[in-house]
Amino acid sequence: RHCTDIICCVIFIVVILGYIALGVVAWVHGDPRKVIYPTDSYGQFCGQRDTLNENKTILFYFNILKCASPVVLINLQCPTTQLCVSKCPDRFATYIDVQASYRYRPDQWNYFRQFCKPGFNNPRKSVAQVLRDEDCPSMIIPSRPFLKRCFPDFSTKNGVLTVANQTTFKDGRGKTRNVTDLREAANGINNVLDARSVGMKIFEDYAISWYWILIGLFIAMMLSLLFLVLLRFTAGVLFWIFIFGVIGIIGYGIWHCYWEYDHLKGIPGSDLTVYDIGFQTDFKVYLQLRQTWLAFMIILCGVEVIIILMLIFLRNRIRIAIALLKEGSRAIGYIMSTLFYPIVTFLLIAICISYWAVTAVFLATSGEPVYKVMANQTLCKYANLTCNPETFNTTNVTKLCPGAQCTFAFYGGEGLYHKYIFIFQLANAFVFLWLVNFAIALGQCTLAGAFASYYWAYRKPADIPLWPLFSSFGRAIRYHTGSLAFGALILAIVQLIRVILEYLDHKLKGTQNSFTRFLLCCLKCCFWCLEKFLKFINRNAYIMIAIYGKNFCTSAKEAFFLLMRNVVRVAVLDKVTDFLLFLGKILVAGGVGVLAFFFFTQRIPVFAQEVPMLNYYWVPLLTVIIGSYLVAHGFFSVYAMCVDTLFLCFCEDLERNDGSTAKPYFMSASLHRILGKKKLSPKKA
After folding, report:
1. The domain boundary residue, chosen from 190, 216, 236
2. Cβ atoms 130, 137 nearer than 8 A
3. How confident is the model at residue 47, as a pLDDT?
4. Where are the transmembrane segments (predicted)?
5. Are residues 536 and 494 in contact, defined by beta-carbon separation less than 8 angstroms?
6. Quick count: other Cβ atoms within 10 Å of Cβ 75?
7. How far is 485 from 7, CA to CA, in rounded Å?
8. What is d(CA 485, CA 488) in angstroms, rounded to the nearest whole number?
9. pLDDT at 427
10. What is the pLDDT of residue 376?
11. Arithmetic mean of pLDDT, 268-273
């Protein structure tokens, strides 16, 4: 063994160090509080400790009618003054009414002014000036906090939209308006609130049923192990039962078509042709024609003949595929630790996802507060221009645009770092894809090395090396990090291109340029196919790297040509393996799902008293079914890797050795018998 693809290894290490440096820089400049806490018009966080807003955790909008939708409120800035408040309004009130009654009802003014700008306490100021300068809101509406923002307390009564049981309100500008004026915001808010209510109930269901969910996943794990063990004895039986079942079903179809064809004999109109009756929207008309059933019968006969001929001519290859499946089950039985290696891959990928997500959040919140001119006058030429809140009052903007304010808009910046944040986000995504593919490649190479050590052991299991999985992992890290990184790099580039194409397609969905959308669709299809092909090549290249220790390009080339020389065997083995493993996943997920259904719906009398009271029984049920499928997929992915490794070793064994004393075969006795070898040749001492 020697180190392979050293240059790529060095580049990979440098990129990882650079990725760590990017995370540190993002951590220094970023501030996740910009995502967690809402920001008022002065760029201050609501609820931030050791500030004036420490006890003011909720954001209040002066005029929510100016906000298009809740999505705009959350993600963008609404064109109205926003303040941090300690609680949302719980009553209807207008500034006009409060100002008129503040002398004999000061309590109303004291309540209303907590939603005015801090320090404002001048009820004698004219209404026009107050509304122009936005010192106070023109009105307050009964609201409730959601996502740390005050939203109107919408509800429906007898199908009528209301706020605090009222259908109208005063807008503070001398008009009485209907609550339906807020319908656009109400619909979105109510949907979000309903989703929040459902989310809370789902969380409660998880909180009281997690124990039983884990039990269900444990049962799925045991069933997956049992299925893999039984494949040693039942792989052939399951496959042939399925094949003969298909042949029998097609045979029945042929008989039924003939029966319908014969039954329609003599019936008026049944001898017409499809051409005679033309196109009909009622397809039942075609079933009244003898010609239709004759065509069905001919098609089914052709399919039946093709399947039978394939079984006749490919019988030995099918037997080899089944023997390799059984051999894979036997190999896993000797190296049981391989079944739990997917946990290592899962942890590595989880670390990559976590680091990518945290870095992305810090990069997204790296900007400095950007302030823009917000003017009540639509013709103000300074509207939406950037401004400095510290010097804004000394400019002539307020004179040219009375009531204009310099308010917080978003986070950004004009510095060198801020200009390249988008590039940094792309780099973050690219390195994330590279690391994830490397983690997968490391797992495939490690498993391939362990199973290859089983195949090339002449006396099984006596010659299998000690701790084959750990030895294979050490070899992959020590010698082949560069090769694995090279393969992962190629795949990451293609995946990044696919992500960019998806982004462009999403942006161009509203356009009417058919040619552009057609071109994008073709590119997406081509790169999807390229990614699938590269995954296939990489997987087999990693197997050859684990066996021979050569570099990536040489291993990929040798694996590709070896597979091309055995292309029929590859096709047969691939389909047989896919079918049996898919059947296993369905059996595990379906079996555990049925058991979970009977349990959570209290249909098992023995455990009826143990079932927790749930809001939605389908929450733990779907979790168990999906989790069981993923557990089975994790175990069966190891099995699939085992079969692919044994197959490449088998093909290499046939080409390198001839079964003589000098070059004995390393394959199992069952494969020898299928190939027509009478017995194993004794190995030279």
Report:
1. 190
2. no
3. 83
4. 7-28, 210-230, 237-255, 293-314, 334-358, 431-458, 479-501, 579-600, 621-641
5. no
6. 9
7. 10
8. 5
9. 93
10. 60
11. 78
